[in-house]
Amino acid sequence: MSTTRTDSLVELAARKELPRHQFTDHVTVEWIKANRPDFPPAWPPPLRDATKALMEYAAIPTRWLAQPDLADSLHGHRHGLRTAVFAALLADWHGLDESDTATTVIAAAVHDCQRQHDKDDTGHGNRAAVWLGANADLVWTHFRRRPTPAEVVKATTAVRLHEVPYEEFTANDHADHARGARICDIVKTADALDRYRLPKLTWWPNSRFVRESNFDQLLPLAFDLVVTSESAFLAGASSTEAVRFAVAEKGLV
């Protein structure tokens, strides 16, 4: 069946005709709103002052993307920035020190930067990890920091493993994960929390795929950030402006 310019992502997903490059639309956002889950009590965690300062730089430059045309797609700037927000919240919740918090936020912010398209794109985590390792000075400078070898190893490992299900870890994956398990787990969780943007209910967040006891408590916030930021983007805000508006509305900064 051929598609038309008016096809929404939710309609295309139902027909298994999603294109390689996927951009949100009004119909899909209204569908997301209409399918709001029955959430448990919300957890509105405040960010530490140092983490709030770090979040000022969590929106990465478009020039860092392998495909700049994907900057506003489902895996573009809005997803990257929301993932960084969730990573920051979890880092603070677990009491990570300044170095590990920064490492976690940096990894979350760039985890999808080397994607070629919005479908599975197997290997994009490894490509992003290689890119991050080669550009560590550039990236840490953007966050107003200087990288240490340990931070780079932990960040690149988290980025590489974010797309690999735990049950598919190889012996080498388990060894790498052990060097920075908390950071890896947080990045994987933060990525999973932002799945309310996807146009199929079975693709939405599921605690079975993460290792985070606070996952369910963050779901109401995750849903609201998607709805508010996607709506703001469709109303004319840039991707970065849209997410920052949503974050401010929830009182996180």
Question: Can you describe what's shown?
Answer:
- The model has no long low-confidence stretch (mean pLDDT 95).
- The chain has twelve helices and no strands.
- The chain starts with 8 loop residues before the first helix and ends with a helix.
- It is globular and about 50 Å long.
- The protein is an all-alpha fold.
Keywords:
globular, 12 helices
Q: Helix count?
A: 12
Q: So what's the oligomer here?
A: single chain
Low-confidence stretches: none
Number of strands: 0
Distance between the termini: 46 Å
Instruction: Report the principal-axis shape.
Output: globular
Helix-strand string = HHHHHHHHHHHH
User: Which class do the helix and strand fractions yield?
Assistant: mainly alpha
Beta-strand residue percentage: under 5%
Rounded Rg = 17 Å
The level of helicity is: 40-55%
Largest sheet, strands/sense/barrel: none
Mean residue pLDDT: 95
Topology of this structure?
Blueprint: H1 9-14, H2 26-34, H3 49-55, H4 77-93, H5 98-110, H6 124-134, H7 136-142, H8 149-161, H9 171-179, H10 181-193, H11 215-234, H12 239-249
Helix pairs in contact: 2-11, 3-5, 4-5, 4-10, 4-12, 5-8, 5-10, 6-8, 8-9, 8-10, 11-12
Quick summary of this structure?
With about 250 residues, the chain is mostly helical. It has helices at about 10-15, 25-35, 50-55, 75-95, 100-110, 125-135, 135-140, 150-160, 170-180, 180-195, 215-235, 240-250.
